Amino acid sequence: MSAEALTATMEKLLKLHKSLYELAVKKTDIIKTGDMDGLNQMLKDEQAHIAAISRLENEREKAANSIAPMLESPTVSDCLNILTQPDRLKLEAITKELAELVYELKEQNFLNQQLVHHSLQFVNVSMNLLRPQPESMNYGPPANKKSEKMNPGIFNSKV
Q: What would the CATH number be for the domain defined by 3-130?
């Protein structure tokens, strides 16, 4: 494999991440509307994207190993130091765009996580309002009566 293979793999990774970001934006709207069927389908689509990204990541590792076999687990940054100027510039641009996209995806997923969390809080509050409150199952006098302090009896008094 060569620099072209690494660049092609990185371009595919970028394309898949763009698609995953678009799914995350759509998921925000689905969460807002409360469409559970749509959310389930969206999660399946995301899982398919993640599996494809994982396969491409393995290809990227192989391509990086072929460019920098002297390193144990070469990164794209390690490969950039080895590549020639034209290949390096193209790969740097793709890497930078991918890093920015991953950051945006992370932010969008954080927003989705917050929306789901707030939705669950709302459901819990609604459920608590609808459920009857359980009565106390403690032994002893009822809570509304004041307990009277008993005077020590004859047998408990000091001589």
A: 1.20.58
